[in-house]
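Proteins fold reproducibly. Take a sample protein:
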Amino acid sequence: MKLKMLGVVAGGLLVSGVGAYAHHSFAGTYLEDAPPVTVEGTLKEFLLRNPHSFVQVEDPKLKDDKGNPVRWSIEWGAAGQLAQQGVGRESLKVGDHVVVVGSPGRNAEDHRLRMRSIKRPSDGWCYGCTQGQTFN
């Protein structure tokens, strides 16, 4: 009986671990090894939150089937992680012109990216840039 119960507990732990891994696996949602995608446009939304922050960027060069600019959903780190790296609620404002580089989503029709870097050309602010890198 104890052996059977041990098997049930071990199986339950194994299954719960798979779910946690799947939730935190960006490889399940994004093509991390694919060439990065660059999106340039207007910041429409900035959600700084846990467990993942997001920005929404409207790209005027890319249109949907109705002729409207495509809006990209770009996943970023947790609010706490970003705060440690100097990113706060005042770092970006809706209406900012930004350039985002990220890993593309597995489904191209979703217009999703996992953030690698974001730049604001107006003042040179940049997250995810290498030290000494400038942006014009």
The helical segments are 2-23, 79-84. The beta strands are 37-47, 54-63, 69-75, 97-104, 112-120, 125-127. Confidence is low (pLDDT under 50) at residues 13-22.
